[in-house]
Structures are given as structure tokens and as C-alpha cells.
Specification:
Layout: H1 12-26, E1 37-42, H2 48-59, E2 63-66, H3 80-87, E3 93-98, E4 115-120, H4 126-140, E5 147-151, H5 158-169, E6 173-177, H6 192-195, E7 201-204, H7 209-212, H8 220-227, H9 231-236, E8 242-244, H10 267-286
Parallel strand pairs: 1-2, 1-3, 3-4, 5-6, 5-7, 7-8
Helix pairs in contact: 1-4, 1-10, 2-10, 4-5, 4-10
Length: 287
């Protein structure tokens, strides 16, 4: 049974295979699973992840079931486990996002179809990290020796946690930059201005205003000046450096509005790559 719940479960060769498979799909490779059903269970709001999965499933010819939490038996008291178990009777692959860290621990041994983790709490976001790696590989054709600064909500970002682990495993140097309130004790921190001119990639993380604005001891304008991509910082980037963000972007907070679609930005390319990487993952799961 093929589950993808944590990138730590994949070795470097398996990650490389997924990247090359995603590149084949981006180049027009066609595979059809017209007799397969994919179920998407999103218990948290999502735009890019949910709809790129749906797009990937449609491009692979799958029939798609989209879960609606507000119209489900959860409203009658049905458990999360029973909801997932029910959908596993209908589908050939199941994609889940949930607010609880490691929600999948009690599932993977009890469902008989592949499970793909579309994000769990502040823990893991393996498909986002894989599309980020695809985007980086398209630019540099390697990982070892690259330097990346990840800036922002390190403590609560599942993107940060997953990316830091896999990027270091692939031989990249990862610098973390964050205000004290958004730091995790698991990492060391540097000043953004100390590394902005030497890194190959700057990856900004969304400031989760719906969760943390009340205890962040900075105004949004101050945050932008201290931790955002300003025009002045942009001019200090290396000529071949790229700008990334998992999105959605708080314009003018993490990145100056006029820089979101600048020549170094790969933000919308990341979104497009999300479809190709998720096609590669679904293809592997459905084989």
C-alpha cells in the first residue's frame, strides 16, 4: 500500500523519481485512470492545494468526489475515523487535509486504499514541499550546495517544518529568519539582512493573521520592514536568485505588492507545478 503522509518516509531516490515524473507530466505526458475514483477530504479551507489536486485528478481521467464538511454526517456526530473509513469504501485514493497534527496515525493501518496527506496542522505538508523542490530543480538542476533563507512563521508553518528537513537532507543550507514570537526552538536563526545577498532562494511564509496577529509584537508595516521582501532587499539578491512563497500572500506584508510577480518570482510557477507534482503522486499511488 502506497501512502504519502510524511516526506521522511521517502528516500532521496524516491523523491528524485517523483520530480522526474512531474517533469514528464509538465511536458505533456498523458496517462488516464478513467476507472479510478479520487476522494478529496478537506477539513480546513484551501484553494491551491485542494483545487490543484482536483485538477491533477481530472487530468489523469479520474472521477472525483469532493467532501463537504458542512453537509456531512460529521454534523450528526460521526467521527473523523468513520468518515474517512466510509470514503475509503467508495474511492481508489484518498486525499486529506486536517487541522490535527499527525491525524493519519490511526488511519494508515486501517484503510485499504492509498492516503495522501494534503497538510496536517502545523506538522507536515509533503506535497507542498515536493512542488517546491520541483520548482527549485527546474531552476538549478541540483540541490546540494544551494542556500535558501526561509522567512516568517517558522514555529507554526507545516511548510517550513517539512521543507527544512528535506532540504537539509538533500544537501541544501537552510537559514531560518523569524521574529521571536514565531521561532521554534528546533532551529537556529539569522538576520535576514545578513544572508539576503548570498542565498540562491528566498522563501517567504504567510503570516497567519487569523491566528497570531494578536500576540505578534509588531505592526504589519514593521513586520514588512524587518522580515519582508522590500525593494531594497530585492536589489541585494543574487542575479540568479529566485523568490518563493507557498501562498496565499499577504501583499505588502511578506512581499511588497509590486514584487510578487517580479522577474525573480516563482510564486505562480509553484502553483502550476503543484498540479504536475500531484499528478506524479497520484500516478504512483494508483499504479
Amino acid at each position: 500500500m502506497y501512502h504519502l503522509v510524511d516526506l521522511k518516509d521517502l528516500n532521496v531516490n524516491e523523491i528524485s523519481e517523483l520530480i522526474h515524473s512531474a517533469e514528464e507530466f509538465s511536458s505533456g505526458k498523458i496517462i488516464q485512470y478513467s476507472n479510478k475514483v479520487a476522494a478529496n477530504l478537506f477539513f480546513e479551507p484551501s484553494t491551491r492545494t485542494q483545487y490543484s489536486f482536483e485538477t491533477a485528478e481530472h487530468r489523469l481521467g479520474c472521477r472525483v468526489i469532493t467532501f463537504n464538511k458542512e453537509a456531512s454526517s460529521i454534523k450528526k456526530g460521526e467521527s473523523f475515523y468513520d468518515t474517512v473509513k466510509t470514503f475509503s469504501q467508495f474511492a481508489d485514493v484518498i486525499v486529506i487535509r486536517h487541522s490535527e497534527n499527525n491525524y493519519y496515525q490511526n488511519l494508515v493501518n486501517h484503510i485499504d486504499i492509498p492516503l495522501i496527506n494534503a497538510g496536517d496542522g502545523s506538522g507536515n505538508h509533503p506535497t507542498q514541499s515536493l512542488l517546491d523542490l520541483l520548482t527549485i530543480y527546474q531552476e538549478f538542476k541540483c540541490f546540494a550546495g544551494l542556500k535558501i533563507a526561509i522567512i516568517g512563521d517558522i514555529a507554526y508553518s507545516r511548510v517550513a517544518h517539512t521543507n527544512i528537513e528535506i532540504m537539509e537532507r538533500l544537501g541544501m543550507t537552510v537559514y531560518c529568519c523569524a521574529p521571536e514570537e514565531l521561532q521554534s526552538a528546533n532551529y537556529d536563526y539569522v538576520g535576514l539582512d545578513d544572508v539576503i545577498g548570498e542565498v540562491d532562494i528566498v522563501m517567504f511564509l504567510r503570516l497567519q493573521l487569523e491566528r497570531h496577529e494578536r500576540f505578534l509584537n509588531l505592526s504589519l508595516s514593521d513586520y514588512h520592514e524587518l522580515y519582508g521582501l522590500t525593494k531594497a532587499r530585492y536589489l541585494r539578491l543574487k542575479d540568479d536568485a529566485i523568490v518563493m512563497h507557498p501562498a496565499p500572500v499577504n501583499r505588502g506584508v511578506e512581499i511588497a505588492d509590486e514584487l510578487i510577480e517580479c522577474s525573480k518570482s516563482r510564486i505562480f510557477k509553484q502553483m502550476k507545478n503543484g498540479v504536475y507534482m500531484r499528478m506524479a503522486l497520484l500516478h504512483k499511488a494508483l499504479l
